[in-house]
Specification:
2 helices, alpha+beta, about 25% strand
């Protein structure tokens, strides 16, 4: 299992333990973990939420007309690009 998925599942497990229902969404270059944030700004759950989310490469809070989501992003490992054999051909006119 890739390290990025292990990290994402670890964050999701912390959120579940704190009483949240995390959603993992895979994208080509990252994994996003989202939860509905606590309704009360004074809630003790905010501490657990932030402790879990700060384990991500990036984290934040977004809101739209349909609700809010607290999220963390884990960037996936990107394989090294393979060299293009066309780059190894000598250029015309080069000495």
């Amino acid at each position: 299992m890739p390290k990025s998925m292990i990290r994402a599942r670890s964050i999701a497990a912390c959120l579940t333990t704190a009483g949240f229902e995390p959603r993992l969404r895979r994208h080509p270059d990252h994994i996003r973990i989202e939860v509905e944030p606590p309704a009360s700004p004074a809630s003790v759950a905010w501490g657990a939420l932030l402790a879990a989310l700060e384990q991500g490469d990036e984290f934040g809070l977004s809101a739209d007309g349909q609700g809010a989501a607290a999220w963390a992003v884990i960037f996936t490992e990107v394989p090294s690009p393979r060299p293009d054999p066309r780059d190894e051909r000598p250029q015309q006119g080069a000495e």
